[in-house]
Amino acid sequence: MLTQEQKIILGKLGYYISFLAIALPSRSVPTFCELLVASMITVEGFVTQSWLQGKLHNFWGSYHKWLETGCWQSYQIVARFMQLCCLSIPEAQPLFLVIDDTFVLRFSEKAPGSSITFQHANKLNQARYVLGQCFVYLAMVQQRLTDEVPTSIPWLARMPSASGNTSKLFTAKALLRFTHSVIGDRSAYVLLDSWFMRGHVIRHTQELGYHAIGQVRHDLALFLPPLPEPKRRGAPRVYGEKLTKKRVQQLQEHKVKMHLYGRIRTVYYRSALCRARILKGQEVIAVWTEFEHKGKRRKTRLILSTDTTLDPVTVLRHYALRWPIEPGFNQIKNLFGARQLWQRKRQTLYRWLNIRLIAYGLLQMLSIRAGKIARGLVNQPWRSEDVITAGMVRAGLKELIPKFNVRSCCTCKSRLFQFPDIENIPEPELSTSKAA
User: Fold this and answer.
1) How much is the average pLDDT of 123-127?
2) DSSP string, 190-252
3) What mean pLDDT value characterizes the chain?
4) Scanning 98, 233, 290, 307, which has its CA 20 to 30 A from the CA of 352?
């Protein structure tokens, strides 16, 4: 006998899967639903492991064949998932998008996209150049309903192209273009780390109608706006006094206590409205910040924002929302099987990776939008009542899913997925997204 909390979670999950299944051909819906539900309760990333854990209906080789040669487009499912994530966010509220990269080590050069790459994370237990696959992720950050803990929901991941003059920067720009084609002209902030805060990436972000916030080099060429001057021949001045280290020290310093990166921190910052040379003289907000740790100040970090209407404290709060993607990488690789995505072709790898990311994203959405109801799925009395994670939701579903025949829950003609005797619970459509 199912409890009321379990029925609500299964009702929401049924609606989520039905929303995604619309992007698929009718004959592919049962196979997709089986693999998606099995991926939600499987730790390892092997297709055969999902087949064993989910007790799938067909022969195991048919799922490999569907991933490799099936007539369906994975980007259409990703677009539907993006729209699903935006349904409960009001149109006037800006979205927070994060772009970052992660590396998966490989032992074989035959793996799609595997190459020897510089290991810029400077990990002491790894060589400077390692063999593996580099993935550039685009994720959305959303806060939980019960607290102010931000959570990242991965949307899309791609590797740099195997041929041509390309890099992670061009891959990031391609992810932004695809996102813009789905969510349209919604207000959004793109949060970038120092690797992606390059001039052409920032300008491309602004061309799409979004604002960029990110950390840059501390010696970036910044200038104050030029002072008014009498009329003279020639073009007007673009740059004023250069903001050198000595000139920055003359700016007024402020001290605040903020909730950043999971705890209350003492922050010292200086800010100025200036013009950046990498943006060809465009005005930006520059914030020089120092954290206090054990009574001592850490090194100075420089944060830039292309939205000049924000105050410095808001810039710091917005940029702090980038951090949830880092523990998200750890969960995706170690707890949701991204390390075991062994596929022979790049397209097959993307298809299976997208299904795994959507499965992880649905668990995150359930933990965010169901609130305390999701806490009732699993009995873990040693955990705090306010703690709700994707792993806890997966532990609860791992006991519920085997009770149902997932394939029989699908209706191919209407592309409806519904658990027996449980009505689907739709999301309140607070905003409309551009159709893909």
Assistant:
1) 83
2) EEE-TTT--HHHHHHHHHTT-EEEEEE-TT--EEPPPPP----SSPPP---SB--HHHHHTSP
3) 88
4) 98
Could you list the residue range(s) of the whole structural domain that residue 46 is in? 4-82+345-417
Whether the pLDDT of residue 343 is over 60: the answer is yes
Q: Are 69 and 57 in contact (CB under 8 A)?
A: no
CA dist 354 and 292 (Å) reads 40
Number of domains in the chain: 1
User: Taking residues 63-86, what's their average pLDDT?
Assistant: 93
Token representation of residue 60: 């195991």
Give the CA distances from residue 38 to residues 12, 44, 208, 269, in Å, rounded to whole numbers and listed in that order. 17, 11, 37, 48
Instruction: Indicate the SS3 state at residue 158.
Output: strand
Q: DSSP assignment of 19-81, as one string? A: HHHTTS-GGGHHHHHHHHHHHHS-SS--HHHHHHHHT-SS-HHHHHHHHHH-S--HHHHHHHH
Chain segment 174-212, per-residue pLDDT in tens: 999 999 999 988 999 999 998 899 999 999 999 999 999
Distances 403 to 38, 54, 352 between C-alpha atoms, Å: 13, 11, 25
Is residue 57 situated within a structural domain? Answer: yes
Which residues are paired to 143 by β-bridges?
A: 150
Q: Which of 147, 157, 148 is nearest to 98 (CA)?
A: 157
Query: Does residue 313 lie in a domain region?
Result: no
Query: Is 295 within the bounds of a domain?
Result: no
Bridge partners of 423, per DSSP, are none
pTM for the model stands at: 0.90
Instruction: At 283, list the tokens.
Output: 């005005």
CA 160: distance to chain centroid?
Answer: 17
Amino acid at 34: E
Q: How many C-beta neighbours within 10 Å does residue 147 have?
A: 11
Farthest-apart Cα atoms in the chain, separation? 85
Q: Does any domain span residue 402? A: yes
CA distances from 55 to 42, 43, 47, 112, 404 (A): 11, 15, 12, 29, 10
Instruction: Tell me whether strands 416-417 and 129-143 are parallel, antiparallel or unpaired.
Output: unpaired
Q: What is the DSSP letter of 358?
A: H
- pLDDT at residue number 431: 43
